[in-house]
Amino acid sequence: MTKVPSSARPKTVADVARAANVSKATAARVLGGYGVVSDAIRASVTAAAKALDYRPNELARSMTTGRSGIIGVVVGDIENPFFSLAVRGISDAAKASGFNVILANSGEKIEAEKAAVRLLIGKRVDGLIVTPSESRDITHLRDIHRSGRPLALLDRALPDLDVDTVTVDDREAAIRATQVLIGAGHRNIAYVTAVEANGHEYVDLRQIYTSSVRERIDGFLSACRDAGVDRPERHVRLGATSSEATRRLADEMLSHPGRPTAILASDSVIALEILRTIRQRGMRIPDDVSLITFHDADWTGVTTPPITVIDQPVYALGHSVAELLIRRLKGQIQPPERLVLPTAIITRGSVGPPHP
Amino acid sequence: MTKVPSSARPKTVADVARAANVSKATAARVLGGYGVVSDAIRASVTAAAKALDYRPNELARSMTTGRSGIIGVVVGDIENPFFSLAVRGISDAAKASGFNVILANSGEKIEAEKAAVRLLIGKRVDGLIVTPSESRDITHLRDIHRSGRPLALLDRALPDLDVDTVTVDDREAAIRATQVLIGAGHRNIAYVTAVEANGHEYVDLRQIYTSSVRERIDGFLSACRDAGVDRPERHVRLGATSSEATRRLADEMLSHPGRPTAILASDSVIALEILRTIRQRGMRIPDDVSLITFHDADWTGVTTPPITVIDQPVYALGHSVAELLIRRLKGQIQPPERLVLPTAIITRGSVGPPHP
DNA sequence: CTGCGATAAGAGACCGGTCTCTTTACTAAA
DNA sequence: TTTAGTAAAGAGACCGGTCTCTTATCGCAG
What we know:
CATH class of the largest domain in chain A: Alpha Beta
Shape of chain A: elongated
Oligomer: homodimer
Order of helices and strands of chain A: HHHHEHEHEHEEHEHEHEHEEHEE
Structural class of chain A: alpha/beta
Number of domains of chain A: 3
CATH topology of the largest domain in chain A: Rossmann fold
């Protein structure tokens, strides 16, 4: 004798109007919370709505109003704690202003990123937050901007695209981290990053299409050169895109006779894999090799020794880029802002003097 | 002389139809990829669409078709790597079938969960995946089900709600982990979980409204009792909901004279905080206290010593719950399935004999 | 040469809201 | 008593697609 589970078409304003014996317009006014309605009518419509279990169709609502209340977010990889934390910052800021978030991840692939943007635009999100995976091909981002939908960039700036952007002082951070290693006596320092390039071999800065990574490498090289290191670009390693790739890369790098005495990792996921490789090879930190990584991931404080990190304000990064976007969504027009948040080095125990 | 950045209203099928000199219906057939159209007309409509930079309005499309191509996901906490990984599994499965994902997190609060469900239903998602934060109040989940929209549960079963569910063998896993500790000689074992309850004091299984946690505690208690432990429920600690709370709880627990010689942590976030507290108190693992945690989080392998864990197939959990849901979305009707995935214990170095 | 079926294109209703414009009823000022 | 003014409710267009139903055209068999 149980009720048939479904098949009951969701109720509409027209259904409620009929039940309450008012016009569709009046019912819509009550249910939509706009216009003027007498208290008596309001009560009876509300009662009818409750009785019928009316739930508004946000889709229909969005179509007429043109606003969906949704912010689209395209990140490189949700699994990377850096992004999960940033997304949390975005979500919190969005929720506080009554917006919701649709998440899509690009896997750092430009084609996936384009598809995601197309999809979100199609869903008529009110605005987008993107971590652009490339600076070469940004036509899809131009399109967003051109279509009048606000766009904001997270963690990675694009010189050619003048929109709200929140990044950290990547170059500065890389310089300081490198100086820490140089100060400890290192001259053979490797920089390991996920960015893919043809040949996995670093040649030139212009080959790096991810702005944050380019900044970091630039800072790294600059600090190395200032310390008189010869051709530091030899020690930039690209292509740590997966744990396997990173493992292979690290293994190859550490088995080499002229192996680095210190490593600077571009994110915590890479650092973890490098740490694993170091352990596996029976080497010790910081005795055999020193390590610094970007992102103060939660685990970096509990290893033995704990890892010295570049602490990025990740949550704030997400929170403020969302706030910038929302400000614009609310109609405030102002010139695009480029926020650069400061980082700090947290000194732990993973840096020591070089040991050849 | 630059073009005005926006204000150009997005083009519609009607615009394209006009430009191509065909009827709206014909243009729609081409652009929507349905119906029959001659090659000549198809070409001219496609050309017109490209010229006008037409982009379909998915909102309008969803409204008439009734399908949005979106799966709504409500998880407890995106920041917890357990959930990020599960979400990744969901996303991958969804993408493979042409679905997209809207993510909302409840913060394990029932009110936020209800709001999220209401929102997603309003957005007319095609189906929902939820990790119910409570088994007491599930009217909102009943509503989903009743409205005919498929619902699937992730990680937590609800006995009263007969829908597709994917969980792991929590009770079994807890028993095995507890037995490992008991086998090492421990009789004073603490179980620490995030679940909140009035008074933070464990009294009764019926007080635990999160099914997975209840299962685990049940298994833990059962294994303890089998080993002749007296009143093991004394050692169940609730309320590790934030890092601060966990820290406080752990600190209090470890400073107590009759402190546990081993700890079983309900997730990796809790374990990390417990580990920090242990270190901070100058205690050592496993000499002073043994530790096992649920979830083989990436960091558990790199601490000294590495942590023995209960390895849950988290990605598969997400992937298969999404597949179950999608199967139903595609119209296949079958009785609700309750999948229980197996776990395994990965023995590392965090368990040793008790040391009073 | 007529008629039938198949194919291609057009006309217009519809989805479920919002919103403008119009109508109605009632109060208050002239 | 007439009239202006206002508050409240109704009628119906509209958003941008989909989809059914109708109409026009063409080939081919009888």
